[in-house]
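Supplementary Methods S3. Complex input for the magnesium ion-bound model.
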Amino acid sequence: MNIGQKILLLLKEEIPEIEYNRYIKHLVYDTKKSTNDTAIFYAPNNLVLNWIKNRYSSKIRHLFEVHESLILNVKIVLKNQIEDKKVEIKKEQKPQQHSLLNPSHTFENFMVGGSNQFAYATIKSVSEKPGELYNPVFIYGGVGLGKTHLMQAAGNVLQNQGKIVIYTTVEQFLNDFIRHVRNKTMERFQEKYRKCDVLLIDDIQFLSNKEGIQEEFFHTFEALKGIGKQIILTADKHPKKIAGLEKRLQSRFEHGLVADIQPPELETKIAIIENKCKINKVILTKDIIHYIATVIESNVREIEGILSKLHAYSQLMHVDIDLQFTKNVLKDQLQENRANLTLDIITQNVAKDLNIKPSEIRSKGRSKNLVYARRIAIYLCRELTQNTMPQLAQYFGMQDHTAISHTLKKINELIQNDEDFKVKIEELTNKITSSS
Ligand code: ADP
Ligand code: MG
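Predicted complex, serialized as structure tokens:
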């Protein structure tokens, strides 16, 4: 594997898979013409070229700097057009640091809601008084909920104040460690990590069952903490739940402040999408934003993938992005997300929400609230699963598919005429899809 391929693979770990497959995968590194000053990649067409140029070339440059200690220009050129001057990215005149912070991971770009308020407030206060309030801060929560974003927001603030900030994942820390052991330069490793003002370590769960690195990490941690340097850590679970983590590390991690991040509520998701649209210069109507917010479940990372997919498709096909277009583009995504939703799960959720028993929904009871619940359940089962009308008729104990189609018609009318009901259905959809 050449150095360019290696860097692109590192990039792959940091970006939505769909972006990688659609764009980055098609880049070809020129091993002959690239030098220690310029890395040259070929793009197959203008779409890929512009996309990477706008979004990823500075990131690629950073990766060269951090992983290969090479400070160079990154040139993305159309195949056979190596002299394209316009796409050259200038070396930034920034103080050299070891951190790889994404400059758009700021507090301003972080949307706050009930789900992440506590983590946000904690990190924000620590960024105002590093080393003085809670040390370490340990943020935990599921994939794509904004842990890295939040920790880097603090990093960006402090780095802009001239502090030395190191951001690393446990994996990179481990690789760095191994390289220094191999080169017999452990003092340099220790010096590097112990000289920083702020240490951000991402994905602590990867320390699990790795004793050697836990030992080294413990000493780094103690050294920094001892002189009041701020440490921020993230993981996908609470320190207590990380298997194979030394007791002394676990208790150190819990010593400062442990805060969790929960999946975002609908309003927070909407705010996040609006913000991402602004950053990515994608214009979407309120309808579409609302639709996307209900489609994506909890992983916010999917939003970027969806926006880039919409943008790319609309450019390729020369059409505006409207709701129907959005629905078509996201069909695969929906099916993937909802593949494991069953009629039982949906019925149970509807029953719970309306405070009745699932068996009652499937019974022949004709009271007003049962009929209402049954209609909603049928509608959602039709929307969220691949079951046919006869299958639904059988499940809900109805005579045949005409009864189902009658129910669907009634619900669609209600959705169109009653705004409150429409919101209720959206909330339920959201609840069901995010619990699966
Ligand atoms: P994690 O580290 O928890 O897996 P990330 O911090 O990488 O998640 O977030 C994934 C993506 O979602 C990033 O693009 C991030 O900017 C975005 N994101 C997550 N939460 C929010 C939020 N509350 N506001 C704005 N963007 C968010
Ligand atoms: Mg992360």
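Strands lie at 28-29, 38-43, 73-78, 137-141, 165-169, 198-202, 230-235, 257-261. Residues 82-98 have pLDDT under 50 and may be disordered.
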